[in-house]
Each structure stands twice: as structure tokens, then as C-alpha cells.
Amino acid sequence: MAAALLGGVLPLLATLFLLAPPPAAAASLTEVTGFGNNPSNLRMYEYVPNNVAARPAVLVAVHYCTGSGPAFYSGTEFASLADRYGFIVIYPSATRSGACFDVSSPQALRHDGGSDPVGIVSMVRYAQQRHNADPNRVYVTGASSGAMMTNVLLGDYPDVFKAGAAFAGVPFGCFATTDGSGWNTACANGTITKTPQAWGDLARGAYPGYQGARPRMQLWHGTADNTLRYPNFGEEIKQWTNVLGVSQTPAFTDHPQSSWTRTRYGATGNQAPVEAISVQGTGHSLPAAGMAARAITFFGLDAG
């Protein structure tokens, strides 16, 4: 009797096994070509998690000099956070010598002026069309050259980006040059200082006539940064508090980790207009472990 039952069950189990769908393949980084206007020939990589939301947010994650989109994908936590929360990550890749992004030319510092910012915004618009992404939830983050590009994109395209998180960057316009060079030594050394109003005017001047809402900004900097020196952190705070029309006096200060001093401007909560985190004793090596998750909280991408 038992043998007869077993003889009937085994073929049924085998049939069910054959009919069962294979396990879902893990999401992977994919290169996209032909994504739109791209005057500086950037390369586009995107990460779309298996559990992508029906109307997903988009995060642009911009690499450092000598880096690449794939390197920033593998070296940061943004993709694993996308797995958790269902948003899309775009990783642009610079193609010029040194793999730095253009944050200094007159074209890069103007709305629809040309160069890298135009190509990055084309990537965002591609994602919105291809994946039904939510235009009201587009964010940008980056490290070093990518942090400078974060500042540039928030100045050039306040109509596209809702917030940014810059890890070891400089203010919008600080790296400006007119001689064709992509490097501004005075800015890198932290010797360019301006009033909050002057910094704010620079950012606002990127898109003349724009009267809409301005994106929020989260800023990170190590006190021992010898590449883009620490005074740039204070200049960024001046700029973005002025752009967002809030006091330079912190509304809130705490220490989420012993080496971090976090200040919030204009409000006290997780989505304050400006949030700034100073990291004691750290050099030009951000974002470190755990920092990406803080940026995701600032964006509100972990709120469902």
C-alpha cells in the first residue's frame, strides 16, 4: 500500500518541480545606451532592484575622480539600500581623462548649458520614461568630484532634483574656471570664501528666472580632508542655507556617532532644509559605512 502511494506521489512531485518557476535572478548593474542628449559622452549604468516600486524614486549616485559608475556601485551601499526600499539607482560614468566630472566650465554651471549635467539629467528622464519613475522623487548623491556635481546639479536643475547629499564637496560655482582647466586650486585648498548672499546668488544664477521650490541639501566633510579642504564645508553651509532661506544658526545639533557632529538648519527633523555632518579626524574618504543609510533617511526613501 505504502509503495503504491509512494509510486503515485513521486511522479506528481517531479511534475510540480518541472512546472515551478526558476528562482528569480539577482538584480544586476546594467549599462544603458541611447538614453538622450549627452554632449560629453557620459556612460550610464542603472540598478533596478527586483522589488522595484510601481512608481519608483530615482537616486543618481556620482563617482569620484579616477572612479566609474561600476566602481561606485560596488564600493558603496546604495544598491543594497535600493534592494531594501525599491528605488532605482543611476550611476553615471565620466569618460574624460582622469574620470572627473565637469563642475567648472561655464557650460556646466548653467541650466541646459551643456556638458555633464545635461547628460545626467537625460539619464533621469530616461528612467522616468522607461520605469515609470516618480518625477517628484529624484535625488542625487556623490563623493568628491561626484559631491561637487551634486552641488552643481542642485543649482542647475532645482526643477529636477528634490534633494542632494554631498560627501566631501565644494559649493556650487567654487570650482569655476574660464581657462579650460578642470581644476581650481584655490577652491580645493579652501581659500575661496564668500558671503552667504554671494554664494546663494551663484547657485540661483544658474537658472535665471526660476521661481520654484529649491532642493534640500545634506553635506558631509572630514575635518582632515587634504584634497578638498575642510573650510569648503562651512562655505557650502553658507550657500545652501541662503538658497533655502533659513538661518545659519543650527536649529538642532547632535552626535549620531562619537566622531560625527550633525547640525540641522531651518528645522529639527530628518528632512530639514539643510543637514551638515562634520566627521572628526577623517580625510578624503567618504562615504564610509553607515553614511549612505543616513543619506537615504534624509531623502525620505526609507519611509515607504
TrEMBL record:
The keyword DNA damage does not apply. Keywords: Hydrolase, Signal. InterPro entries: AB_hydrolase_fold, Esterase_phb, Plant_Biomass_Hydrol_Est. Residues 1-26 form the signal peptide. Pfam families: Esterase_PHB (PF10503). This is Esterase. It comes from Streptomyces rhizosphaericus. The lineage of its organism: Bacteria, Bacillati, Actinomycetota, Actinomycetes, Kitasatosporales.
